[in-house]
Amino acid sequence: MSFPKATSKTKAYTYCFINMLDFYERVYEIVALIPYGRVTTYGAIAKCLGAARSSRLVGIAMNHSHLTHPHLPAHRVVNRNGLLTGKHHFPSAPMAELLEAEGVVVVGDCVVDFDRLFWDPKEHL
């Protein structure tokens, strides 16, 4: 069996794919450190990683986390307003229930007292 010859284009795609996987792993490392009963945002994680404009990529990484890191506390990551935007990606237990089990009050899919519960990884790491 022969494989197609690697071109500069396929090398570039491979490089980007490897960098993306590395980015995802760094996101997961930060998410694993979010304290019980606290929340952070996609943007705060992106800023901590030195990629302030990559909050959407953090969200994509979080969407994939259930497959590769099933015990990651992904429910502790919300949007910049404290809204549970990732709630549709929790098939076994609703995101709000997981947060409420940690003492976080959620009303209308939004974290109550978000400013007090916000954990900024850049300040703590």
From TrEMBL:
Gene3D superfamilies: Winged helix-like DNA-binding domain superfamily/Winged helix DNA-binding domain
Methylated-DNA-[protein]-cysteine S-methyltransferase DNA binding domain span: 22-104
Statement: the UniProt record of this protein carries the keyword Cytoplasm: no
A GO molecular-function descriptor: catalytic activity
Entry superkingdom: Bacteria
GO biological process: DNA repair
Key words, A-Z: DNA damage
Annotated SUPFAM superfamilies: Methylated DNA-protein cysteine methyltransferase, C-terminal domain
Protein name according to UniProt: MGMT family protein
Organism this protein belongs to: Pedobacter agri
